[in-house]
Design goal:
69 residues; alpha+beta; two-stranded antiparallel ribbon; 3 helices; 20% strand; elongated; binds zinc ion
């Protein structure tokens, strides 16, 4: 039982600390984040492309780009 608890906490902790890098276009109207730096949606970006964690992108109110599969 104790072992099961340790395994549970290990996985819960892994999920919480997992950080995915995403890309956003640094323009005022940008509301999307991208999983790939060479995404179609980013190719039209006229501004700087910023790298950040998925958590931060979501905290900023960004949603996944429609081009991602
Ligand atoms: Zn995209």
């Amino acid at each position: 039982m104790k072992t099961l608890l340790i395994i549970f906490f290990f996985f819960a902790n892994t999920t919480c600390t997992e950080s995915t890098t995403v890309y956003i276009c640094n323009s005022n109207g940008a509301k999307k984040y991208h999983l790939k730096e060479n995404c179609k949606g980013l190719s039209t970006c006229q501004h700087k492309i910023l790298k950040m964690t998925l958590e931060k992108a979501k905290a900023d109110g960004k949603t996944l780009c429609g081009w991602e599969d």
